[in-house]
Amino acid sequence: MASLKTLQSIGYTTAFFELPEVGSTYYTFDNATISRQPGYWNIVGVNLHQENDFFLDLQILYIDEEALQYRPFSALRDASNFLSLHQDEMQALVSFLEEKFNLRDSHLKSELQHFSMMNEQELAELHFDEREIQQNCGNYYLYHPDSHIQTFDEISIIGLPSWDFKGKIYSTGTLVFATFDRERLKDPAFHILDGEWLGSIRFDLQALREFIFLLKQQAK
């Protein structure tokens, strides 16, 4: 089974992906080692803050080998804001988050407080077309962070991976993060899957528990 390892532990450097040297610690799946010559990389950035209260900046980046060849390349500008996951990688992500933040024995004790499933109208307001709405309805959630985590001027969306669409089984599913200024929705050309890089979300501890719960439900 795949697991998440630091870039350095499987032979990469942050410079290889033009990632910052300070701030987040970056991880990728250990099935993407240099010796296997992967065509793409799923990267997870973790930046934990605990000065007063727990909050976590979680980044996800998808970097295609072809995109990496173009210079100047900067991962935080040019990477896509999703992960392309096999089901065992999804399980590995859940295990990584549970173990790293000591949440393996943590259970959700109430209904979701920080996430609501998006309906067709809300997806249309994100500029999804009809095909995208039909494909993604039931998998996209609007994030409702506490006010000390994020201001009302910003919106955060999570799209959960699915491996089954209308009877067709896919080998990979897509986990999407998008955080952006609310004003950007006024631009009809804006789309959360092809705008400039948007893939970072800030969680407090309860929101992180709920996010892990949603991942586990989707992975069943």
Written description of the protein model:
The protein is an alpha+beta fold and 220 residues long. It is built from six helices and twelve strands. It has one domain. Helices cover 23% and strands 29% of the residues. The strands form three sheets. The chain has a five-stranded antiparallel beta sheet with strand order 1-2-3-4-12. Strands 5-11-8-7-6 form a five-stranded antiparallel beta sheet. A hairpin with a 5-residue loop joins strand 3 and strand 4. The two termini are 16 Å apart. The model has no long low-confidence stretch (mean pLDDT 90).
How many β-strand stretches?
Answer: 12
Mean pLDDT, nearest integer?
Answer: 90
CA-to-CA gap between the ends?
Answer: 16 Å
What spatial form do the alpha-carbon principal axes imply? globular
**Helical amount among residues, as a percent range?**
10-25%
- Give the SSE string: EEEEHHEHEHHEEEEEEH
Rg of Cα set: 17 Å
Q: Determine the number of helices (DSSP H or I, runs of at least 4 residues).
A: 6
Computed structural class: alpha+beta
Percentage of β-strand residues: 25-35%
* Strand order in the largest sheet: 1-2-3-4-12
Instruction: Specify the biggest β-sheet.
Output: 5 strands, antiparallel
Poorly predicted sequence stretches spanning 5 or more consecutive residues? none
| Count of discrete structural domains | 1
